[in-house]
Amino acid sequence: MLFGFWYPALEARDLRAGEMRAVTLLETPLVFGRDASGRVFALADRCPHRAMPLSFGRIADSTVECCYHGWTFDAQSGQCRSIPSLVEGANVKVDRIFAKSYRCAERDGAAWVYLPDEQAQSEEPPPPELPVFSERYQTMHHAVEFASDVDQGILGLLDPAHGPYVHQSWYWRSAHKLRNKEKTFEPIPNGFRMVPHAPSANSAAYKLLGVYGQPVSTTIEFVLPNQRTETIRCGKWWFTNRTTVTPIRRDLCRLDFWAAWNLFRWVPLVKPIFRSFARRFIAQDQSNAERQAVGLRRDGPRGTPMILVGDADRQARWYFELKEEWARSRRTGEPMTHPLQGQVTLRWRT
Question: Is the pLDDT score of 10 beyond 90?
Answer without folding.
Answer: yes
